[in-house]
Write a structure and sequence with these properties.
Layout: H1 15-20, E1 29-32, E2 35-38, H2 40-50, H3 62-88, H4 91-112, H5 125-130, H6 137-144, H7 153-163, H8 166-171, H9 175-190
Antiparallel strand pairs: 1-2
Helix pairs in contact: 3-4
Length: about 190
């Protein structure tokens, strides 16, 4: 499948991004047939529905599909906000973020169990939803002065399996340079030392 990949400077957003996502002015945005589809989980569902012949990301069973959506939303809300507090706040809020992140990751590890992927043997919707958070772990540890692996070793083993996937290796930014440097720059803008 042919596509064009565009990087965005999140601190200096392009006119194209602002035109394609005027409501919340964030990435990612998938532009298909000239029409924007915004937000990660919605994009993944759109891909699943639009290109059914290539792969199936969501389970066919309605209950399992609902569960995959629930846990994907859990990562997008709970894990995101806990990580945000660690990276970009101070004081009590920062400390609460550290506690919340570990608790949220433990909850996800419980959902993973002993399976290689959240959906079982196959890399699927919840894996796709949670995989981008892997590249933030280094920054969570550095800015939060925490260690994630001892708290959730099965989740870290899952993350290592995911990082070996060609599609993941080719798309995730480097956690120690790109993500960490972004965090440093954004923390300075927010006045968080």
């Amino acid at each position: 499948m042919k596509y064009e990949y565009r990087e965005e400077d999140l601190l200096n957003k392009s006119d194209f991004l602002l035109q394609m996502n005027p409501a919340i002015k964030k990435i990612p945005v998938l532009v298909h047939n000239g029409k924007p589809v915004c937000e990660s989980l919605i994009i993944v569902e759109y891909i699943d529905e639009t290109w059914k012949g290539n792969c199936t990301l969501l389970p066919s069973d309605p209950y399992e599909r609902a569960q995959a959506r629930f846990w994907a939303d859990y990562t997008n809300t709970k894990v995101y906000w806990a990580g945000y507090k660690i990276l970009f706040t101070k004081g009590e809020e920062h400390e609460q973020g550290k506690k919340d992140l570990i608790e949220d990751l433990k909850t996800l590890e419980g959902q993973l169990g002993d399976k290689p992927y959240f959906g079982g043997e196959k890399y699927g919707f919840l894996d796709i939803a949670f995989t981008p958070f892997i590249c933030w772990f280094y920054s969570y540890e550095k800015f939060g002065n925490i260690k994630i692996e001892p708290e959730v070793p099965k989740l870290i083993a899952w993350s290592k399996r995911c990082m070996k996937r060609e599609s993941v290796k080719k798309t995730l930014p480097d956690e120690k340079n790109v993500i960490y440097e972004f965090c440093l720059t954004y923390r300075k803008q927010l006045g968080v030392k």
